[in-house]
Amino acid sequence: MELSLVLQFKSVGEDLCQNRLVSAHGGNLSVRIGDRLVITRHACALGRLAEADLVEASLDPRGLADALASMEVAVHRAIYCLTDAGAIVHAHPAHAIALSLKARKIVPADVEGSVLLGRVLVVGWGRRLRPGGGAEVVARALRKSRVVMVHGHGCFAVGKNLEEACGYVTTLEESCRILYLLKDLAP
What secondary structure letter does DSSP report for 64? Predict the structure, then answer.
C-alpha cells in the first residue's frame, strides 16, 4: 500500500483520538480507489494505526476482505455507490450524539457550522440501527449533505479526502458544543 495513503489514515486517526471524537477502538475511516475501497480493520485503534490495520475491499459486497474490515463496511460501500465521496470518516462525537438523541436535525448556530454544514439530518429514528445497518438511508442523506448523524450512534462525514471529511466531523462537534453553551446561557 502507498506510504502516503497510510500516513493519511494515521494522521486523521490520531486527530480524531486527540480531539476525543472516537473512543480507543471506535470509529472507522475509508477511501475510495477506483472500484475498491481501503477501510480500517474491525476494532483497530484509530490513534495508533499501522498499515496492517488497513483492509482493501471491493465495492461488491461479496468480497472476502469483509471479515477483517470494520463492521460499518456496508455503510461505506453504500455511500461510495450513491455519492461522489472520495473518503469517509465515521466518528462518535459526544455532544453531537447527545443532540441526536433529542433532535431529528442539528442546526448549527455558529457561522462556521452554518456555512460548512447547514442542517445536519439525524437518521435512524424509530429504528435500532446496529453497526453496518441503515446503509442506504445514511448514503441517501449524504447526497444532500457532507455529514449525517445516526440517532444515538455517531456521524458519517464525506469529503474528497480523509482530511476534508475529518474537518466536517470536527466542525459538527464544535457546533454542537456551542449549542450546549447557548443552552447554558439561556435565561
Answer: G
Q: Which three cell numbers mark 130?
A: 446496529
- CA-CA distance, 183 to 27, in Å (whole number)? 28
Cα–Cα distance for residue pair 143/107, rounded to 1 Å? 18
Q: What digits encode the pLDDT tens for the residues 70-111?
A: 989 999 999 999 999 999 999 999 999 999 999 999 999 999
Q: Which grid coordinates are listed for 43?
A: 476494532
Instruction: Report d(CA 129, CA 71) in Å as an integer.
Output: 12
Q: Which of these, 27, 39, 44, 50, lies nearest to 74 by C-alpha position? A: 39
- Decide: 170 and 19 in contact? Cβ < 8 Å: yes
Q: Rounded distance, CA 17 to CA 163, Å?
A: 14
Tens digit of each residue's pLDDT (9 = 90 or more) over 122-180:
999 877 666 666 899 999 999 999 999 999 999 999 999 999 999 999 999 999 999 99
CA separation, residue 75 to residues 20, 94, 114 (Å): 23, 21, 26
Q: Write down the residue that cell numbers 471479515 correspond to.
A: 67
- Contact assessment for residue 106 and residue 119, using Cβ atoms and an 8 Å cutoff: yes
Which residue matches cell numbers 457550522?
113
Write out 21-63 in H/E/C secondary structure.
CCCCCCCEEEEEECCEEEEEECCCCHHHCCHHHEEEEECCCCC
157: which DSSP letter? E
